[in-house]
Amino acid sequence: MNERLIEITPDTEKAKSMMKMANTRQEMISATDYSKYPSLVVEGYYEVIKELMSSILLLDGYKTKGEGAHKALIDYIEKTCKTEFLQSEIYFLDELRKVRNKINYDGFFVKTDYLTRNKKRIIKIISGLKNIVKQKMMPTKHTHSAGGVIVKDGRVIVVNQKGCSWSLPKGHIEDGEDALTAAKREIAEETGVTDLTLIDNLGSYSRHKIGKDPKEEDRTELKTMHMFLFSTKEEDLKPTDPDNPEARWMKKDEVADMLTHPKDREFYLSIIDRI
Question: 148 lies in which domain range?
Answer without folding.
Answer: 141-274
